[in-house]
Design brief:
CATH topology of the largest domain: Arc Repressor Mutant, subunit A
Strand content: under 5%
CATH class of the largest domain: Mainly Alpha
Distance between the termini: 55 Å
Radius of gyration: 21 Å
Order of helices and strands: HHHHHHHHH
Shape: elongated
Helix content: 55-70%
CATH superfamily of the largest domain: Winged helix-like DNA-binding domain superfamily/Winged helix DNA-binding domain
Number of helices: 9
Number of strands: 0
């Protein structure tokens, strides 16, 4: 459950912190949930983020990217939490990319079922990624941040953003490929069985 946090000594100017921060609430919660993979921890993380942001709002330079600033506070808060420290201890393995893609027919009942089951498969595969890959995929693909915004949020150079994003996508592809090939084979067998009847 969320509670309004009053930080003593913080005076809000009209149309300032609340106007900037409140529209970001759902996005920040979604990002927090992806990072923590736990509803209660995500709620706590967002609440702590808003408390820290409100307290430090006087240090925010108006005219700079407020969304990136809020995401950076949330991310840093997560990384220093017990859950974040445990998750970031994982060392990623760089996998070789062979560039093969899986061709799938479109708009058949089998492919529609295949796509539906793949969304669950994709969700699980993203959840299993190391946090630095998961967060960059989410910021780029879900939050639709530009490379510059992601660089500001993560406090890394744009080149690092591009490199991590490429490795995250490659890792995700490598994790999904065996399951997708297996399901594509099963769908092909089902089609052959149905045509034989």
């Amino acid at each position: 459950m969320f509670y309004y946090v009053d930080v003593s000594g913080a005076t809000l100017q009209p149309d300032s912190f609340e106007e900037l921060a409140m529209p970001l609430f759902d996005q920040l919660y979604n990002f927090a949930h992806w990072l923590t993979q736990n509803r209660e921890e995500a709620e706590d993380l967002v609440q702590e983020t808003y408390a820290k942001a409100l307290k430090g709002f006087s240090s925010f330079r108006l005219g700079t990217n407020f969304r990136a600033w809020m995401y950076r506070i949330l991310r840093n808060t997560f990384l220093t939490s017990r859950t974040g420290l445990k998750v970031t201890m994982t060392v990623p393995l760089d996998l070789e990319e062979d560039g093969t893609e899986i061709a799938v027919e479109r708009d058949t009942p089998e492919t529609l079922l295949f796509a539906r089951s793949n969304s669950d498969l994709l969700q699980r595969a993203i959840d299993e990624l190391p946090v630095h890959f998961r967060e960059i995929l989410l910021l780029c693909e879900v939050e639709e941040m530009s490379y510059q915004e992601i660089a500001e949020t993560l406090s890394v150079p744009i080149g690092t953003v591009m490199s991590r994003l490429s490795r995250a996508r490659k890792t995700l592809r490598e994790r999904l490929r065996p399951q997708l090939q297996e399901e594509a084979g099963a769908a092909a067998m089902a089609r052959e069985t149905n045509h034989g009847l």
